[in-house]
Design brief:
The complex is a heterotrimer of chains A (about 425), B (about 170) and C (about 110).
Chain A lengths: L9 H14 L2 H7 L6 E5 L3 H14 L4 E6 L3 E3 L4 H5 L9 E3 L1 H5 L3 E4 L2 E5 L4 E4 L4 E3 L2 E4 L3 E3 L23 H11 L6 E6 L9 H15 L6 E6 L7 H11 L4 E4 L1 H4 L2 E5 L4 E4 L3 E3 L2 E4 L3 E3 L1 H5 L9 E2 L6 E2 L2 E6 L4 E2 L7 H20 L8 E10 L2 E12 L2 E9 L6 H23 L1
Parallel strand pairs in A: 1-2, 1-9, 2-5, 9-21, 11-12, 11-17, 12-13, 19-22
Antiparallel strand pairs in A: 3-4, 6-7, 7-8, 10-18, 14-15, 15-16, 20-21, 23-24, 24-25
Helix pairs in contact in A: 3-11, 3-12, 7-8
Chain B lengths: L22 H12 L1 H4 L3 H18 L4 E2 L4 E3 L3 E4 L3 E6 L8 E7 L7 E7 L7 E6 L5 E9 L4 E12 L12
Parallel strand pairs in B: 1-9, 3-9
Antiparallel strand pairs in B: 2-4, 4-7, 5-6, 5-8, 8-9
Chain C lengths: L4 E3 L3 E3 L3 E7 L9 E2 L5 E2 L4 E8 L2 E8 L8 E7 L4 E9 L4 E11 L1
Parallel strand pairs in C: 2-10
Antiparallel strand pairs in C: 1-3, 3-8, 4-5, 6-7, 6-9, 9-10
The chains are: A alpha/beta (about 425), B alpha+beta (about 170), C mainly beta (about 110).
Bound molecules: flavin-adenine dinucleotide.
């Protein structure tokens, strides 16, 4: 609990209500007095949640109360964390505080939500406090399913970092990479779809290889053991690895490595159907699902992800709840910060339309994922999405092509940097 | 030569038959679909066709070619041409046992992919490997049986982004 | 060259079909690729993979540059007796690397 919490509190409203009941003239009084504004609560202050909260407050102004519940005191962006691992950015550059949201008039509550009481329409915090809502925008991100890789666990992640939630794991992977010798071998496990940031593992491989080569360790080898037979922007990455760090990155699909059987942190090795792969550094990106708060509230399908109605990212299981970002099953949209923010804007506008009787614009979703293949070689894939046959589908897309001129690739890097500045400004600025 | 890549191709459905069958129509189609990039280099496909035909002639050595008895499995669409899985199978035993296999990619700068000599494994043929494809095309497998017959199988593979580690065209000849 | 990777089932019965899957990490440099300096990267491929059981050839693969990097081959043979399976990789220039696996065949 911090000082940023605003005194709109449930208690005040309840006192008011009781007083009105006591006089027996509730309806008349309620009309005469200024009614309390409807309560929008956003759970999760990441790319989706922060943008949803700010959009709701900026457009809704005094007509709504907006509360953001976020467990962490500051947010470390996963986006650009690969840049940190490769030494192109510092941790400070990707760490952001929530003061800007409080300044907007958003009540920022720093605390872990323990449960959503959908019947009472309230969130219960670990402190025992409850926060009631008229509409909930749920943006809690992902849970890592460590146990889905036999031998892997939260404890094993200290030896075999995942760095798939930015923070201490990012720092750990970075320092492990720095400590490697000139002919080190690295093994990277990549999960099956769907997961956060589809091109992220391959960008990471490119940037780790770049870092090794740039620091006199071109003899190092990085082997990717993938759970998939193909992956996002595959040809662009394969071409890029070969061009910038020839022979350093090898990618093996399950039909070649024979499937991942288990990992062993004690011997730093991975057993597959084909062989045992040992490494000086093993990084495991485990399979994922929606964060526990969403699953426990009964808002997820058996596959562990939250379904949504495409028009407004509303949960088909609860019309008072919208689920956005990585936790949601947003049709053809990938799990990216860009997509989460786009969904956050749509959900905020839909909630305002519900609560204030505002017009309902047709939803438009966007995404662009930039990936670095080298510090001056960027590629991108993106699309405009709309509602199609009950789902969210691509309306129009674009993707970089192999063999583009260097200037175009350089331009994509500039675009990525501008995008980072813009999205973090929209979230926190 | 930089920036001019044989590898780059958009998703173009390969024709169902390899060169030697209606190649002019197919060639025309490819030019139309690929646009100026391919049209600027019209010699490539024709030269490739000759190389393919001579590879087939070398293997068959005048023997008739049977279209049954051999199977080539491959994904109909490959995201990337850098590494495409292919599997050759044959149920033949005894005199129909496959003793030699050749894999050909008619539209690669180097048509021949591999030649496999099969010993006495005691089981019907099932052989998998991974190939590079410069672009969408119909890959061909030729096989020779212990009895001297020649078998042929094909698989059309649409390559979304051609890749391959082939940046340079082969010098003619 | 790196160490080839090969896995066989540890114990089989006579008459079982034994799957063989062999992988070698190798760039299979085609000789048709441009390097960062714009020049042609010289060809360096594994041009032969020879698999034999107790000296008897099971499968010999002659590879061209059109075989993908990290050459991979998968086939099967009939378990008739215990013995050693050997896979030898030969690279342009003649360098060789080999891997062996013993397979115990129960009657
Ligand atoms: C290595 C890497 C690189 C990436 N690069 C890019 C990129 O270049 N571009 C891009 O667009 N995307 C990128 N992404 C993906 C991007 O980070 C995610 O898609 C994005 O963060 C999703 O936003 P979100 O709001 O759904 O979840 P998050 O950003 O994860 O936010 C969820 C928030 O909810 C909070 N929370 C969860 N549960 C509770 C609870 N019970 N109580 C209180 N708070 C809770 C968490 O603390 C967290 O702050 C990358 C990801 C990785 C791992």
């Amino acid at each position: 609990m911090t000082a940023t919490r605003q005194p709109f509190t449930a208690t005040r409203r309840r006192v008011l209500g009781l007083a009105m009941l006591a006089t027996g003239v509730m309806a008349v009084s309620a009309r005469g007095a200024t009614p309390a504004p409807p309560r929008i609560v956003v759970l999760g202050g990441g790319a989706g949640g922060a943008v949803a909260a700010r959009t709701a407050k900026r457009l809704g102004g005094e007509a709504v109360s907006v509360t953001l519940v976020e467990a962490a005191p500051s947010y470390v962006t996963c986006f650009f964390s690969n840049w940190v691992i490769a030494g192109l950015r510092a941790m400070e550059d990707i760490t952001h505080g929530y003061a800007g949201l409080a300044a907007d008039g958003i009540a920022v509550v720093h605390g872990r939500a323990e449960a959503i009481d959908r019947d009472a329409r309230a969130i219960r915090l670990a402190t025992g406090e409850t926060i009631p809502y008229d509409r909930l925008i749920l943006a809690p991100g992902i849970a890592l399913r460590h146990e889905a890789v036999p031998g892997y666990s939260e404890a094993a992640a200290l030896t075999m970092p995942h760095a798939w939630k930015a923070g201490p794991q990012t720092t750990l992977l970075r320092s492990r990479l720095e400590a490697l010798g000139p002919t080190a071998s690295i093994v990277m496990l990549v999960p099956p779809n769907p997961y956060r940031c589809p091109p992220g593992p391959y960008e990471r491989a490119a940037l780790m290889a770049h870092r090794l080569k740039a620091t006199g360790r071109a003899g190092a080898r990085l082997t990717i053991l993938d759970a998939k037979e193909t992956f996002s922007k595959q040809a662009l990455f394969q071409e890029g690895w070969e061009r910038h760090t020839p022979g350093m990155v090898q990618w093996l699909p399950p039909s070649v490595h024979g499937g991942i059987l288990s990992v062993d942190p004690a011997t730093n090795s991975v057993e597959t159907g084909l062989d045992v792969f040992s490494g000086d550094l093993i990084t495991v990106i485990p399979p994922q699902q929606a964060a526990p708060i969403a699953v426990d509230a009964g808002l997820a399908d058996p596959d562990g992800w939250c379904p949504v109605v495409p028009a407004a990212m509303r949960s088909p299981m609860d019309s008072f709840v919208h689920v956005i970002g990585d936790a949601a099953k947003a049709g053809e949209m990938p799990k990216s910060a860009f997509a989460a923010a786009s969904q956050g804007r749509v959900a905020a506008v839909a909630v305002l339309a519900d609560l204030l009787g505002w017009p309902r614009p047709e939803p438009r979703y966007f995404n662009t994922c930039w990936s670095l293949i080298a510090p001056d070689d960027g590629v991108k894939v993106g699309a405009l999405y709309g509602e199609k046959a009950g789902g969210i589908a691509t309306v129009k897309g674009f993707v970089s092509q192999p063999g583009e001129p260097a200037a175009e690739r350089r331009r994509a890097v500039d675009e990525a940097e501008n995008w980072y500045a813009a999205i973090t400004a929209e979230m926190f600025g | 030569m930089r920036g001019y890549r044989l590898c780059v191709s958009r998703l173009v459905r390969p024709s169902t038959a390899a060169p030697g069958h209606g190649q002019s129509r197919r060639h025309f189609l490819r030019l139309a679909l690929l646009g100026p990039a391919a049209a600027a280099w019209p010699g490539v496909s024709l030269a490739a066709t000759e190389r393919f035909d001579s590879e087939v002639a070398l293997f068959t050595a005048g023997r008739p070619v049977r279209a049954d008895g051999l199977n080539l499995e491959a994904p109909p669409v490959a995201e990337s041409g850098y590494s495409v899985p292919v599997t050759v199978t044959s149920a033949g035993t005894g005199p129909d046992r496959v003793v030699r296999v050749r894999l050909l990619a008619p539209d690669n700068p180097l048509v021949r992919l591999a030649t496999v000599t099969v010993g006495d494994t005691g089981v019907p043929l099932r052989l998998s490997t991974r190939i590079r494809l410069a672009r969408s095309q119909t890959v061909v497998a030729l096989a020779e049986t212990a009895g001297g017959q020649v078998l042929r199988a094909e698989a059309a593979i649409a390559v979304v982004v051609g890749g391959c580690g082939f940046d340079l065209p082969l010098e003619p000849g | 060259m790196e160490r080839p990777r090969l896995r066989l089932p540890e114990r089989v019965r006579a008459g079982d079909v034994v799957p063989v899957r062999a992988l070698l990490m190798h760039p299979m440099e085609s000789g048709l690729r441009l390097g960062p300096d714009g020049g042609r990267v010289p060809r360096r491929i594994v041009y032969r993979i020879a698999c034999s059981f107790e000296g008897e050839p099971l499968l010999v693969m002659d590879l061209e540059p059109g075989i993908a990097a990290n050459p991979y081959v998968e086939f099967a043979f009939l378990a008739r007796r215990s013995g050693t399976l050997t896979v030898v990789y030969t690279e342009d220039g003649g360098a060789e690397t080999a891997v062996e696996a013993f397979i115990e065949v129960e009657a």
